[in-house]
Each structure stands twice: as structure tokens, then as C-alpha cells.
UniProtKB/TrEMBL annotation:
Name of this chain's protein: TetR family transcriptional regulator
Organism, as annotated: Streptomyces cacaoi
Gene Ontology MF terms in the entry: DNA-binding transcription factor activity; transcription cis-regulatory region binding
InterPro entries registered for this protein in UniProt: Homeodomain-like_sf, HTH-type_TetR-like_transc_reg, HTH_TetR, Tet_transcr_reg_TetR-rel_C_sf, TetR_SbtR-like_C
Highest taxon of source: Bacteria
Keywords recorded for this protein, A-Z: DNA-binding, Transcription, Transcription regulation
Domain HTH tetR-type: 23-82
DNA-binding region boundaries: 45-64
Region (Disordered) residue spans: 1-23
Biased composition (Low complexity): 1-15
Length: 200
């Protein structure tokens, strides 16, 4: 093998490593942006996000050229995290009903921390509809899996549809951030407790 072959091999090994680093950097950026958006809303200065992530402004703009790109990135990132949590909770929780309750808690976190998303994306109806479709495609199957596990364990009634449950939880969360007297999480807790099968 000559030097050019060795160089090509090293370059080939470096490329996946660079891609892995880029993915890790992007995840750190999205985590930082999500934290800043929750604390300050989607109009927070990009420099605050850069400071939270420990990177320069140029790095953010390289990944996300516009604020809308960044908001969409955060939204998809949070949907993915919520989707990935379902199977993990099923594997580690004491019961499927407990896993369902913890997952719904994460879902509520997601719903009440999307500050200003709809307003920012209103002008792009097609883009917003695509995001909503992504949300349903990723999360409805996870909720279905959790419900089926709890039903199979005899913990909850069997006539519950994942989409309807998620829609109901969403409706309970409407306005939660604008009325200090309303505790959406408590209402959702009561809803999930109400899924229990009656004990005879």
C-alpha cells in the first residue's frame, strides 16, 4: 500500500468521526436553544443561545441560517427526544402505567415550552403543517405502544385511543403559561389517573 492509499484510509476514518462531532455539536446547540427559548421565549437574542452552548455566533448561523430554521430544529429535536423516551421508560419503569404517566409528563413539558412557535411559523403554513405531521408520525406510535403495554398489563381500560388522549392532554395545556391560577399538570395527572381500570 503506498502513501496515497494510507492517506485515503485516514481520510475515510476521519469523515465519520467529523460527522459524529457535527451531530453532537448540533445536539448541544439545540439543547441550549431549547433552554433559552423556555426561559426567554423564541425572540431571545441568538448571542444568548451561543453563550449557553459555548460556541460562536458563526457556528449557530452555519447550522441554522435563520431564526425560523433554529426554531424548527428545536421543535423537531424535542419531538425526537419525547419519542425516544417512550421505549426507555417502558424498559425502566416499575409498571407500564407508571411509564405512561412519566411520558405524558414529558409530553406536557414539550407542549407548554413551545413559546411562540406557531406565531413565528404562521407565514409558512405548509412548513407548519409538515411539522405537525412530523409530530404526529413520531409521537402517536409511541403513545400507542405505552397504552397497549398498560392495557396488556391490565392496568388501564382498553378503549383509549392514543391520538385522542394526546389531543385531550393538549387541550388541558392551552393557556397554561398565561394563567397562574391554572395548573395544567395537575389536570393532566387527574386525566391519567382516570385511565385506571376500576378495581372490583
Amino acid at each position: 500500500m503506498d502513501d496515497s492509499d494510507a492517506g485515503a484510509g485516514q481520510a475515510g476514518q476521519a469523515a465519520p468521526s467529523r460527522r459524529k462531532d457535527a451531530r453532537r455539536n448540533q445536539k448541544a446547540l439545540l439543547d441550549a436553544a431549547a433552554a433559552v427559548f423556555v426561559a426567554s421565549g423564541v425572540d431571545a437574542p441568538v448571542r444568548d443561545i451561543a453563550a449557553e452552548a459555548g460556541v460562536g455566533l458563526g457556528t449557530i448561523y452555519r447550522h441554522f441560517p435563520t431564526r425560523a430554521d433554529l426554531i424548527i430544529g428545536v421543535y423537531r429535536h424535542q419531538v425526537d427526544a419525547c419519542a425516544d423516551a417512550g421505549p426507555a421508560l417502558l424498559a425502566t419503569s416499575p409498571s407500564p402505567h407508571s411509564a405512561l404517566g412519566q411520558w405524558i409528563d414529558l409530553f406536557v413539558d414539550f407542549l407548554v415550552t413551545k413559546h411562540g412557535l406557531a406565531a413565528v411559523l404562521q407565514a409558512d403554513r405548509t412548513g407548519f403543517e409538515a411539522l405537525h405531521a412530523y409530530f404526529l408520525d413520531r409521537l402517536v406510535p409511541v403513545c400507542t405502544e405505552l397504552l397497549e403495554a398498560a392495557t396488556a398489563a391490565g392496568e388501564i381500560r382498553s378503549d383509549i385511543d392514543a391520538y385522542q388522549l394526546m389531543r385531550g392532554v393538549g387541550n388541558l395545556c392551552v393557556g397554561a403559561d398565561s394563567d397562574p391560577r391554572y395548573d395544567a399538570r395537575r389536570m393532566v395527572e387527574l386525566l391519567i389517573a382516570g385511565l385506571r381500570r376500576p378495581q372490583h
